[in-house]
Amino acid sequence: MNDFIRQLADITGSGFVSSEPEERYLYSMDQGTMSPAEPDAVIMPGSTEEVREIMLLANKHKVPVVPMGGGLVLSGLTRALHGGIILDMKRMNRILQINPKSRYAVVEGGASEGMLQAYLKKHHPELKHSMPDAPPIATLAGNICIHGSGHLSVLGGFHSDMLTGMEVVLPTGDIMRTGSCSISPDWFARAPLPDLSGLFIGWSGTTGVVTKLGIRLFPSYSHNDMLIFVCEDADLMPDVISRLTGTQVAEDMTPWMTPKPEWARGFLHINISYGAHSKKELTFKRNLLQASVKKYSDQKIAGFLPMPPTEKSRFLKIPSPDLVKFADIRKGGGFEYVGAIMAIEHFAEAYRAGLQIARTYNVSYSMGARIIGAGHAMMFFYAYAFNRADPEDIKLAQHALEATNTAALEIGGIPWKSELPAQKQIINKMDQNTFNLMNQIRSVLDPNHIMNPGNWEK
Amino acid sequence: MPAIKFDPELCASCETVDCLMKCQYIEFAGISDAKAEKLKINAGENSRVLNECLTCYACQEYCPFGNNPFYLLVELQEKKGILPAPKPIVEEQLRMMSPKGRITRQKVRSPVVNMCAFPMLTGCVRGKLFEGASVISGNDIFCNIMWLHFAKNSVIRDRVPKMIDNIMSFYLKDSKIDEMVCFHDECYGTYTSVAEAFGISVPFKPIHLFDYINRRLNEIPDLIKPINEKIAYQRPCSNRLSPETDKILDDIFIKIGAERVPRKHDRENALCCGGVPRAQQRDELADELVEKNISDMLSTGAKYCVFNCPFCMATLGQEVAEHGLMPILVSDLVLIALGE
Amino acid sequence: MSLTKKSGKSGCYAKVSEDITMLHEEILHRCFRCGYCKMPSSYIDLNCPSYLAFRFETYSPGGRMWLLRAWLDGKITLSKRFSEIMFSCTACGNCTEHCPFPGFKDLLLEAFTAARGAFLDEGLVPAGVRDYLTRMQLHGNPYGLPAKKRADWAGGTEIAPFTDQEYLFFAGDEGAYDTRGQEIARSAAKLLAKAGISFGILTMGENSDGNDVRASGETALFEELAKNNTDLFNKKNVKKIITLSPHGFNAFKKDYPELGGNYQVFHYTQVLAFNMGKLKFRENSDPVLATYHDPCYLGRHNMDYYSSRMMLSAVPGLKIAEMDRNKQNALCCGGGGGNFFTDVLSSGNESPARSRVREAKATGATIMAVSCPLCAIMLEDAVKAEGLDGDLRIMEVSEIVNDRIL
User: Fold this and answer.
1) Could you tell me if residue B87 is inside a domain?
2) Is the pTM for the entire model greater than 0.80?
């Protein structure tokens, strides 16, 4: 191994490779509940060429490689389950191109969500991209590869739907491109080609390393506002969501249900954000949203919370630092969630299952969802906070997460960026031919099975 | 708890029906139409007024007999389950504003200034104007008048006596103080008008902020540097419960050299800031009220828009500022005149 | 600020049989490692100097928090690498500024300081840190030069020894001993005199303010340095101090009062900012575009973002172009926490100083104004390393003003 590490150092320079106990310890885990798995080394490539050389070397020596972006997935997907090296991509954080007319950006594989947001604000204030609610150091590539979603998902769907193309280094060291950039200098779309991007999205780093990608940009409005809808009946939610998304004016819709603060317990809220180029347009959009659910507000069984403009600013901050504060509610620095992708009509069922699990395991919870597209699906999340210093508390959260994964699958949903045990549950429910095809594809792309081994295995 | 203080005979004998005829939000075909609706309310029957009421408190002021038409209307709304706002919104606010039991005993000295549930405004109590003042605030001394907007007289009956007890036992009693400056019209209205109409006894003397400021300015006339500016005043709904204090504001303005510009929508014709209609899901009406208020202010050439209600300021302040007027609280305006 | 100790030689940790405890250990596991601490509020770039330079998660504030917890739990041991990770922190305060957890954010740097104390007690510190602290211990300054040379910087000037003037002017270690620092000290003193400020300097006996010794975790040595200074200041009846360095300003203002040193403390820019009206500027000064680099101990640590800018704004013909990372979001030059002397951060392409001068250059400014001698020296080296000589000039704010007054 020492010789291997020396060869790695020849590729990136010794300052960007470490097999020291400190790095091996810290990169053995993430913020979630999955148990640690130490890598033999951590390496930080600075270019596609360096990634290629690393992959050639690893493939030659059959050393496992775990690509990592922000390392904020929470479900332990960037742990070195079979040892090997962790490829920390965050040095490759350049923003390579903004195309304002075709509205896309091309960035390196380690570019962060926050840096792209700031870059656009400074250089292209008329444009924005869909920020996830992850902290801003999270990477675009990581988020897209896990089918993330964010603040423009009602408009544009999953972040993977917003992908326009990729440059990927395969486990064999080949550099390949997907989408229009494989033919043209422009990174505008994945259509009309066979969609090879799908070979790398949702695979949890088991098929290749994304070194560049193109992502759709959207108009950034000068006027922005938000509404909070509230009701008491979970059974109303699918219809409410359907009505609100039916207006086609919201950029983002996020239902939330939480027992704390006390005033919110038992109520179901939906944050709806929207923007416009003028105040008049903004008012028009608000009226459309409100009119869509007038049926319920006229009955006085639901409505929009009155909020002075000054109170709205914290809801309009993207991403909201308030969200990570959930990790401190048990004064213990930990939370993890099951984000189940499911059909909208299962909302009430999913909500009740969450309440039941929280009662059973007596865990600190928060529930919510992000609506994807015009009500095409949702990412329904069940978040559990735990105290990292208390092994019993971690175990409790783990049990709650497992029970939640089971419940989500029973409802017909699919746990998102699933932990190892949930991956196995998904595989058990999956059509056998689908799983067979996954394995065949994987063995073609990664003949030596070096990419994040342990994931998506029976 | 006693019924709302109301004399039906006196009301029935009224020839002008000012309470409804002067209403700026509900249209009546004439005095007889208004009278008919009023009599329905008095008899505890359904009236369209129960549904259309904006809950602006103005009828309390319009009634020439001080016969509490608004409190009676709210009583009937609650009895009939007519919710001005959706139930979940009312329920959440009820929880949000509930007493938290976090109050601690505190030695206070005069003047004791009650900031109600707006501790974030404590910084307003400063300088020569409030020299030596003790400030009290928090949900445990919340005046609870807001429930008049939500057909919840029962909550007022339930919570206000507790708040009064908290004010006395945690602050005033031990410090042997028997009066309290109400920073907001809401509190003053609660401890005067509402308390009287609802039969709630108040063991301390509430002092209206305007009264306090006016007296204080009399004590420090040499410190006043006239502002010499035109000021548009956004009169809040809760000042309808103590209309006599509106005249004190005129005195204050004269003392600080500010001109209270004659607005179409001031004094008796003051318009709602637009906050409450949003809770009632009447945003388009709220937009209209905001627009009317702002254009009215702009037509006067005023430089400042002065508020005495923090909720009005939160609702209108940004809009006012976007139109080039400076939003400011009455107390801060006076502090400017005092060079602070 | 509390200097409450647990025990141990440094006063920051205690070893009781196998159980190690550390001051502020109760916050370590509460860090979620969300990474807000790595960036400015705009997220435009990385803003933690050591993470920027090294890029391993271990070198970020969150990484340190988790490593320290692991060490206390016996999962990792003290090592040379661990020590380098801890001592590469410049105590710039970006993490405390941007951490979203109000429950413990203010204690982050204090926890790192306590941990450094533990490393010192174990003798596991980078050689540069060891040598730095040894020189401090032996000579009372980080240069290892005699105390009697401390006032040499003022030679040939009309600066008087402190007797009964209004202010004591404290040039600090860099102002006293570093050639470039001495220039800056003379420039600041000259401008103070021009503005009619009554001040004098001590000619011997004082030693380092100890600010960065404290940040290094050597609490006992800091207290010793501070005690020597306060004894001397009190003996001389000092009431008001003007410091050249924001580091000294921070120590005198925040830490000395608990050690018996109660003075009104000002950074020289704070005194000059309100006396600019007394200065007569030359007419027809050439227009110049400058950018201003906020020093951490004046800015984030003491929230003064305006004194220097007020001075610069008074200069005819000078316009300020702000860098993306400014004020609360300024990138540290890399010299804090003792790194100016210990060089744990080193000077690679991604060193904070080099990143910072590139950022300054990108504004189009030809002058990068500073108000800290450490920043000046760090950034001048970076200008050379980046090949920006002739394009970007590092100037201390009083130098800019002195150049343009009659």
Assistant:
1) no
2) yes
* A306 at B interface, C-beta within 8 A: yes
Range list for CATH 3.40.50.10700 in chain C: 281-404
What is the CATH number that goes with domain A323-418? 3.40.462.10
Looking at CATH, the fold of the domain delimited by C281-404 is given as: Rossmann fold (3.40.50)
Give the residue numbers in B contacting A (CB under 8 Å), as ranges. Answer: 83, 85-89, 91-93, 95-96, 275-276, 278-279, 281, 283-284, 287, 311, 314-315, 317-319
Are both B27 and B59 inside the same structural domain?
Answer: yes
> C-alpha distances in angstroms, B39 versus B8, B33, B72, B74, B322?
9, 10, 12, 15, 45
Distance CA A409, CA B134 (A): 59
The answer to whether A45 contacts chain C (CB < 8 Å) is no
Tell me how far apart the terminal alpha carbons of chain A are, to the nearest angstrom: 29
Mutation target to probe the A interface, by most A beta carbons within 10 A, among B100, B102, B280, B281 is B281
Query: In Å, what is the CA distance from A166 to each residue of A107, A180, A187, A213, C76?
Result: 10, 9, 9, 4, 39
Domain A92-219 has CATH 3.30.465.10: yes
Amino acid at C341: F
**Per-domain boundaries in chain A:** 2-90, 92-219, 223-316, 323-418
The second-level CATH assignment, the architecture, of C13-125 is: Orthogonal Bundle (1.10)
Identify the chains in contact with B, defined as 3+ C-beta pairs within 8 A: A
- Asked if B13 and B111 sit in the same domain, the reply is no
B64 lies in the same domain as B169: no
Taking domain A2-90, whether its CATH number is 3.30.70.1170 is answered by no
Confirm whether B267 is domain-assigned: yes
Asked if A31 has any chain C CB less than 8 Å from its own CB, the reply is yes
Q: Are A385 and A332 in contact (CB under 8 A)?
A: yes
pLDDT band at C1; cut points 50, 70, 90 = very low
A contact residues 257-296, partner B, Cβ 8 Å cutoff: 261-264, 267, 283, 286-287, 290, 296
In chain B, whose CA is at the least distance from the CA of A262?
B95
Q: Output helix, strand, coil percentages for chain C, rounded to the nearest 5.
A: 50, 10, 40
| Residue A354, CA distances (Å) to A365, A406, B172 in order | 9, 11, 48
The string of pLDDT tens digits covering residues C358-381 is 999 999 999 999 999 999 999 999
- Rg (chain C; Cα; Å): 21
Contacts of C75 in chain A (CB under 8 A): 25
Residues of B in contact with A301 (CB under 8 A): 86-88
CATH architecture of A223-316: 2-Layer Sandwich (3.30)
Residue length, chain C?
Answer: 406
Chains A and C touch (3+ CB pairs under 8 A): yes
**What is the pLDDT confidence band of residue A309, given thresholds at 50, 70 and 90?**
confident
pLDDT tens for A385-433 read: 999 999 999 999 999 999 999 999 999 999 999 999 999 999 999 999 9
- B253, B260 Cβ separation under 8 angstroms: yes
| Among the four given CATH numbers 1.20.140, 2.170.130, 3.40.50, 1.20.59, the one describing domain C142-273 | 3.40.50
Chain C residues in contact with A31 by the CB 8 A cut-off are 32-33
